[in-house]
Amino acid sequence: TAESYRRLRTSIQYAQLDVPASTIVVTSSNPGEGKTTTICNLAIIYAHDGKRTVLLDTDLRKPNLHNEFKVERMPGLTDFLLGNALLSDVIRKTPIDNLDLICSGTVPPNPSETVGSQKMKDFLIELKKQYDIILMDSPPVLAVTDPAVLATLSDGVVLVVSSGKTRVVELEQSCESIGAVRASVLGVVLNNFDLRMAYGGDYKYYRYKYYSYGYGYSYGDDGAGKRGKRKKAVGSKQ
């Protein structure tokens, strides 16, 4: 699992050689395909690589990062955008060195307009002064327009699909939605891929021992997390 996330990081780094991606949206076609698990572990890999990383919950409809890290949702992103909190109020440290978290904050009545506002653009510009990597957890791309809006503010998008669940036509529609706003799909993560089903029960692969920090994820000595089934990263550029 740890090596899969390292390959994903490397694939993202090489997806755009001229202008390496530093502001990245992670989304999926539908709910429940593992985008939040993916973005959390990807953030940990970047942080352990020495990159100043911030994990930003831009899913303003059903935010979840605060639950994963067991912290309060407010104050957060929307509270800062509305002028009800300072930047220092919404940035939360995590137990991982080089990794900070910004939760969603108060759920607004108009999420799409909020993430597409000039204040959001200025907010990201400010974050770029402090961090090397900005990772944004967004809603599913086929459900709402928010991911497409966020894609225009990023260097690229990583799509998470679930093996045996996501249909090919849904993946195609997701890529088309992102391409329609002239944003770049950096690659695709194939989640919940079962090697035993693909190669038979005799296929051998290593298992790793993980230790828990108590934040909803299990982290190993190499900094990667494990949750659910084994993952296989596919970083081909679309």
Description:
The protein is α/β, with parallel strands linked by helices and 238 residues long. It has helices at residues 2-15, 35-48, 65-68, 77-81, 87-90, 111-115, 118-130, 146-151, 168-180, 195-199; strands at residues 23-28, 53-57, 91-93, 99-102, 133-137, 156-162, 185-191, 211-212, 218-219, 225-226, 232-234. α1 (2-15) crosses α2 (35-48). The longest helix has 14 residues, at 2-15. The radius of gyration is 17 Å and the shape is globular.
Give me the side-by-side strand order of the main sheet.
3-4-2-5-1-6-7-11
Q: What's the main sheet like?
A: 8 strands, mixed
By DSSP, the count of extended strands is 11
Mean pLDDT: 83
Rounded to the nearest angstrom, the radius of gyration is 17 Å
